[in-house]
């Protein structure tokens, strides 16, 4: 697993629950170090051990933790890069959904050795979609739940009202049902396409 993803998990725990909880996770997972290096690669079982430790320390199921991580990646004001990458898709939530197939490629333009699961969006009638998340062994099982958190946070970001349902895994591929109830339900968060230099 790419260190950038492990570092995001670490930052999620520290920022949301505090450094003490992260140290508990470090001990329970038997890491032997406290900080992930963003540009290194770690064995997948290590990431699984960290996620198991987080679930144990927080007494939460893995699906909930993964969804919370996805929400954190988009909504935390301290980290803007994932949100910017996602918002480049267009001016509406529908644009965002239609661009999901290209997300792994766009992520690799930013970080060449970052491997995200393959995403496939299927368009159904009446504002319904199915997002297929195919990890192909490149990420820990359950990445679809991270996508549920991202989809929910991005709906808030665009001001859209959506219903999301993780439908489980079929033949190694996770399926998320997305129902776009109202595209302009509320005012979205401000977004400036040009990066500001401080």
TrEMBL record:
<feature type="domain" description="Heme NO-binding">
    <location>
        <begin position="2"/>
        <end position="160"/>
    </location>
</feature>
<dbReference type="InterPro" id="IPR011644">
    <property type="entry name" value="Heme_NO-bd"/>
</dbReference>
<dbReference type="GO" id="GO:0020037">
    <property type="term" value="F:heme binding"/>
</dbReference>
<dbReference type="InterPro" id="IPR024096">
    <property type="entry name" value="NO_sig/Golgi_transp_ligand-bd"/>
</dbReference>
<protein>
    <submittedName>
        <fullName>Haem-NO-binding</fullName>
    </submittedName>
</protein>
<dbReference type="InterPro" id="IPR038158">
    <property type="entry name" value="H-NOX_domain_sf"/>
</dbReference>
<dbReference type="Pfam" id="PF07700">
    <property type="entry name" value="HNOB"/>
</dbReference>
């Amino acid at each position: 697993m790419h260190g950038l993803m492990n570092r995001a998990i670490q930052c999620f725990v520290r920022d949301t629950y505090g450094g003490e909880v992260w140290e508990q996770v470090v001990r329970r997972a038997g890491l032997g170090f406290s900080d992930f290096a963003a540009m290194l690669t770690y064995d997948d079982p290590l990431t699984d051990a960290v996620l198991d430790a987080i679930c144990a320390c927080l007494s939460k199921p893995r699906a909930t933790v993964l969804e919370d991580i996805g929400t954190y990646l988009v909504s935390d004001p301290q980290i803007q890069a994932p949100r910017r990458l996602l918002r480049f898709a267009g001016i509406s939530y529908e644009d965002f959904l239609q661009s999901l197939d290209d997300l792994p490629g766009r992520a690799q333009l930013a970080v060449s050795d970052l491997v995200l699961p393959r995403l496939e969006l299927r368009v159904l009638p009446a504002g319904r979609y199915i997002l297929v998340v195919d990890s192909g062994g490149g990420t820990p099982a359950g990445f679809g739940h991270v996508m549920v958190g991202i989809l929910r946070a991005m709906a808030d970001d665009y001001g859209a009202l959506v219903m999301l349902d993780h439908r489980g895994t079929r033949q190694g591929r996770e399926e998320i049902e997305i129902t776009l109830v109202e595209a302009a339900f509320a005012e979205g968060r401000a977004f400036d396409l040009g990066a500001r230099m401080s």
